[in-house]
Design a protein that fits this description.
By secondary structure, the protein is of the alpha+beta class. The protein is built from five helices and four strands. The chain folds into two domains: 13-42; 43-169. β1 and β2 (116-122) form a beta hairpin. α2 runs antiparallel to α3. It is rod-shaped, with a radius of gyration of 26 Å.
Length: 170
């Protein structure tokens, strides 16, 4: 018996459909994974700067910590000389909320804001400092904002949910 050309109709459709579905699925998974990794690691450089600062404070090398802050003896920060720095960060701190507790001192949160990164630093049981790292100059400073300015509600919700995944990286 002879086969007509319509007998072969649709023979390769299932295989082609499987290839298309697998390709779309691979693109979606790759996009979600790369977006999540970007979100989790986008502040890595600025977090590293503050971690270096914290390490210097913990080791008692306050000159290095002051340099990490972006200041030197030759070029002290305006309004934040080394004596003021020592009164904030040394074990003999004169800050009303207390000296840094070396067992607690560390990053607890990181949030990207326009031209800088807002980092939350637990200093002791009573004291939490908001630090600002400028993305262009890599200078650490006390944050002028309690929260990131001009954040839309979507970004705030994203930070409060997926931002929790960043905690082990801090």
């Amino acid at each position: 018996m002879r086969r007509s050309y319509l007998d072969q109709y649709g023979e390769g459709e299932e295989q082609r459909n499987r290839i298309i579905i697998r390709s779309i699925l691979a693109v979606v998974i790759l996009t979600v994974t790369s977006s999540l990794l970007w979100y989790l690691l986008k502040n890595h450089h600025q977090e590293g700067l503050v971690k270096t600062f914290v390490t210097s404070v913990k080791s008692g090398d306050f000159k290095a910590a002051y340099r990490n802050w972006g200041c030197t003896d030759e070029k002290p920060c305006s309004g934040y000389d080394f004596n003021k720095f020592m009164s904030d960060w040394s074990p003999a701190s004169t800050v009303s909320s207390g000296a840094p507790d070396l067992s607690i001192l560390g990053l607890t949160d990181s949030q990207s804001c326009n031209n800088g990164v807002l980092l939350t630093l637990a200093v002791n049981g009573n004291r939490v400092e908001k630090l600002w790292v400028d993305k262009s100059s890599d200078e650490i400073n006390f944050s002028p904002y309690p929260i990131c300015p001009h954040k839309n509600p979507w970004a705030i919700m994203l930070h409060r949910t997926i931002g929790k995944l960043r905690k082990p990286l801090l």
